[in-house]
Write a structure and sequence with these properties.
This protein has helices at about 5-25, 30-35, 40-50. The chain is an all-alpha fold. The termini are far apart. It has 3 helices and no strands.
Amino acid sequence: MTKQCSEVEELETDKQINSIDQFITDGGFDQAFNEVFGLPEGVVESLKEIC
């Protein structure tokens, strides 16, 4: 592999990592996690009434 190809691959990898970091920073991971594993809406509403 040439040095130039290696540098291009590193740049692409950096972009992917930055995209993932930005997704996490923006709360996308938390939102997706809660949509899949979160509490049902009725439970969330009940907890809001308690707090």
